[in-house]
Amino acid sequence: MSPSRPLRGLAGFLLVAGGVLVALRVLHVGVPLIFPGTRPGPFSVASLEEARGRLGFAPLVPAYRPATLGAGPPSLTVTLGPHPTFLAVWRGAHSLSLTQRRGGPAPSHPPTSQALGGVADSRWWREGPANHLVLRRGEFWVTVVTDLPARDLRRIADTLGPYSAGGPGPARAGLRAPPSG
Amino acid sequence: MIPAAWYAPLPSFLWQVALHSAIAGVVLYGWARRLRLRSGRSKRHLLALLLVLPLLTAAIPGRTSLEFRERRAWLDSGRLLAIPLVAGVRVSHVVLLVGLTMVALTLWQEVLPALRRSGARGDNAPEPLARLARGLPGWERCAVTLRRADALLLATGGWPWRPRVIVSRGALARLSDDELAMALRHEHAHWQQGRWARSHALFAVRLLQCYSPVALWTFREYCLEVEIECDAAAVAGRDARPLTRALLAVYESTDRRDVAARAALRRRADVLLGDDRLDDDALPVATIATAAATLVAILPWLV
To answer: Closest to B35 (Cβ–Cβ): which among A9, A20, A27?
Structure first.
């Protein structure tokens, strides 16, 4: 190395830093392959049963689902960290997304939001064409966003119940994704 | 999964500091080994960089969201922290345990001794020694205190407006006048050219990272480098043997179990005797600045 070069020694630094970065990337990609539980998600899941298995709690789903939400199954997504979260989205002529999160701070809501009549621990507001509803159900925060009429929010809130594989729960029908292929 | 509290603002910042410190430490250590970097200014700059840089890169906001960690980050350390070990214990538990141990170690080995030194009272030192100390530039108001201890101790404390030299009876009994004079010059060098201010500023930075083993190691290496620098300043243009003999006397009086202290003394003696020379210009400032800028650009992507 020539002592006159103003950046002498830098090539060695870049080589070492590059090696360390590659090693870290290998860890980032490789660890979840060996320990699948280390990835926080989000994961697409095919059924509520699978969502329950991954989350460790039964997802809450509304028994009231108007036909305008479409006949197809909802898309189901699970996130394990930092707070276990379940997301179900129905899309048809209207759409409905339901997010259920265990723990953590309350979902943000505007100061103009108000309690939904007859629904405990709720905040409701309208934003453009979408109605928003935030509910507290035990240790869970539930957020509903839909372009269904506002009167449907109460029905959705009233019929919200935990998914049960065996019982006549609200969420059995029409919630399984069709087998792939 | 690791607890959600890990991603709260303060724990997340503290973890990012430790993570960036560890990664930058590996990179800089690997680079220094590759260069066979000797003691000197370049090494001190790299060590100071390693202490300060993680506090800056970890403070960049907006990187703890799941979206960032899963889609944009080069490394999501949450995956490593969530690796299961045994009986429900995960890597995150081990990291917490190491952090708590380091806090205890810092209190025991660094904070308590510093408090003891600052509050130490003793007798007045012999007049010739006090005169010798006060004859050094800037030390006209220096307090020279005699500690009633048989251990071989010669150290400085106090503040820039009132420096203090502490010398033990053991040091007076076992060091010759030449050796004492050189040891005093070494202590005096700690107060020259901004070394006191830099060391104390980095000590504060190190205390902010009291849970990080990398910060502890880095600060100790930095202190050793400053000792070597002060040795060189003390013997500049003079015979190095009296200071080497003083170091040897301290070495021999140090408990054999204190491996780290004895290794540091050996290294200082090696440099003084010329077995391991100083190299202040091993790396150009532009190289160190570019390496720092590269780390600033890289580290925020490791969360």
So the answer is: A9
Query: d(Cα B38, Cα B303) in Å, to the nearest integer?
Result: 32
B27 to chain A: which residues are within 8 Å by CB? 13, 16-17, 20
Count residue pairs from A and B with Cβ separation < 8 A. Answer: 109
Q: What is the pLDDT of residue B20?
A: 98
* CATH code of the domain containing A134: 3.30.200.100
Please indicate whether residue B1 or residue B107 has the higher confidence score (pLDDT): B107
Picking from B280, B101, B118, the residue whose alpha carbon sits closest to that of residue B203 is: B118
- Residue B291 near residue B282, CB atoms below 8 Å: no
Give Cβ neighbours of residue B122 (< 8 Å, ≥ 6 apart): B145, B146, B147, B148, B166
Confidence of residue B136 (pLDDT cuts 50, 70, 90): very high
Whether residue A26 lies inside any domain: the answer is yes
Cβ-nearest to B74 among A7, A28, A37: A28
A167 lies within 8 A of chain B by CB = no
Site of tokens 């009549």: A117
Contacts of residue B278, Cβ cutoff 8 Å, sequence gap at least 6: B38, B39, B40, B228, B229, B232, B271
- Sheet with A130-137: strands ordered across: A43-45, A75-79, A85-91, A95-102, A140-146, A130-137, A122-127
Please report the ipTM that was assigned to this predicted complex: 0.87
Q: Are residues A15 and A87 in the same domain?
A: no
Residue A93 pLDDT:
93
The 10s digit of each residue's pLDDT in B34-65 is 999 999 999 999 999 999 999 999 999 988 88
Sign of CA dihedral B66, B70, B71, B74: positive
Contact A63, A159 (CB under 8 A): yes
What global pTM score does this model have? 0.79
Total domains, chain A: 2
For A77-117, write each residue's pLDDT tens digit. Answer: 998 877 889 999 999 999 999 999 998 889 999 999 999 88
8 A C-beta contact, residue A99 and residue A87? yes
Please check whether residue A181 lies inside any domain of the structure. no
Our count of domains for chain B comes to 1
Contact state of B70 with A42 under an 8 Å Cβ cutoff: yes
Segments forming the whole domain that contains residue B242: 4-301
Please write the tens of the pLDDT for every residue from A155-165: 999 999 888 76
Question: Which of A10, A24, A42 has its CB closest to that of B75?
Answer: A24
Shared-domain flag, residues A47 and A110: yes
